[in-house]
């Protein structure tokens, strides 16, 4: 088995047909089909089922696909690392992040990393914690920032930042007129609430209220904080989000820190515990972890 067999196999999978794969690889279809047959002969199993509407992987093909992707990643990474040793750090860093404080943290880290590694390029994806975790575990992004809580299985995570939760209150709401920049949690119970869309977040917020003998009136869950702000500014409810939200909203609302109890959100830097980082991602990871120790 040679590396070209791996690349040919993956291209056929990605394109869904031998014809399209051959065009992408700039080779004729018969030689491509022969290379795949040679691979199947070496593995002593069929990898594809050929159907009228295209190709599907067999059970063996699905299993081999996992190894093939890892082999290609290691091959590409080895070339990148050797070039980096010769010419300085190059390549592309794939990051995924939640909202809240995370974008500011990412910006600070990229700025510091770029000063030392000006040839590195960046792709930053934004979503909720569940989506970030999926992307990190699948290899779409090497390093991510999520918020607690999370399932630690398959992930290597480091707590990097904490901040309080706040209530974003419509300016004409009765609670907006309360003195001070804090609000007791129990005062929010009678009112319609807008919260982040992450599945585990609802249970967490319900647990805040449970010791007080009341339940939150959650009317809306939203993936993006700015959308929640727009609803709040229109008077449709009180939004509960991390304190960093106050940096992006200021018109039509009043922001108060939630107390009694004090509730905080923790941000965690994560990577796949079962995969090696590329040289670019490893140096970025090490820089961030080292900076947290200072």
Per CATH, the architecture of the largest domain is 3-Layer(aba) Sandwich
Percentage beta strand: 25-35%
Apparent shape: elongated
Order of helices and strands: HHHEEHEHEHEEEEHEHEEEH
How many domains? 3
- The CATH class designation of the largest domain is Alpha Beta
**By helix and strand content, what is the structural category?**
alpha/beta
- Spans of at least 5 consecutive residues whose pLDDT stays below 50 are none
What's the number of helices? Answer: 9
List keywords for this structure.
alpha/beta, Arc Repressor Mutant, subunit A, D-Maltodextrin-Binding Protein, domain 2, 3 domains, ten-stranded mixed sheet, 12 strands, 42% helix, elongated, DNA-binding
Task: List strands and helices in order, with pairings.
Elements: H1 3-15, H2 18-25, H3 29-43, E1 48-51, E2 54-57, H4 59-87, E3 91-97, H5 102-116, E4 120-126, H6 129-138, E5 143-147, E6 155-170, E7 182-184, E8 192-196, H7 199-209, E9 217-222, H8 225-233, E10 238-242, E11 253-259, E12 264-272, H9 279-292
Parallel strand pairs: 3-4, 3-5, 7-11, 8-9, 8-10
Antiparallel strand pairs: 1-2, 5-12, 6-10, 6-11, 6-12
Helix pairs in contact: 1-2, 1-4
């Amino acid at each position: 088995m040679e590396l070209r067999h791996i690349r040919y196999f993956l291209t056929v999978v990605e394109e869904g047909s031998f014809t399209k794969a051959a065009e992408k690889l700039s080779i004729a279809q018969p030689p491509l089909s022969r290379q795949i047959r040679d691979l199947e002969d070496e593995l002593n199993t069929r990898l594809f089922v050929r159907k009228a509407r295209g190709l599907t992987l067999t059970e063996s093909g699905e299993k081999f696909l996992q190894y093939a992707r890892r082999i290609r990643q290691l091959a590409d990474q080895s070339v990148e690392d050797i070039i980096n040793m010769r010419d300085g750090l190059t390549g592309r860093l794939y990051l995924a992040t939640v909202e809240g404080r995370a974008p500011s943290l990412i910006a600070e880290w990229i700025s510091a990393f770029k000063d030392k590694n000006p040839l590195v390029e960046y792709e930053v994806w934004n979503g909720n914690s569940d989506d970030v975790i999926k992307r990190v575990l699948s290899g779409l992004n090497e390093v991510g920032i999520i918020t607690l809580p999370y399932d630690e299985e398959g992930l290597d995570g480091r707590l990097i930042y904490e901040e309080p939760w706040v209530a974003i209150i419509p300016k004409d709401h009765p609670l907006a007129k309360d003195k001070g920049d804090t609000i007791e949690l129990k005062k929010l119970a009678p009112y319609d609430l807008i919260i982040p869309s992450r599945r585990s977040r609802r249970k967490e917020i319900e647990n805040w209220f449970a010791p007080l003998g009341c339940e939150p009136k959650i009317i809306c869950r939203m993936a993006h904080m700015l959308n929640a702000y727009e609803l709040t500014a229109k008077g449709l409810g009180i939004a509960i989000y991390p304190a960093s939200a106050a940096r992006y909203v200021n018109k039509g609302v009043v922001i108060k820190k939630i107390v009694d109890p004090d509730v905080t959100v923790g941000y965690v830097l994560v990577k796949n515990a079962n995969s090696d980082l590329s040289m670019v991602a490893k140096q970025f990871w090490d820089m961030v972890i080292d900076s947290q120790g200072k």
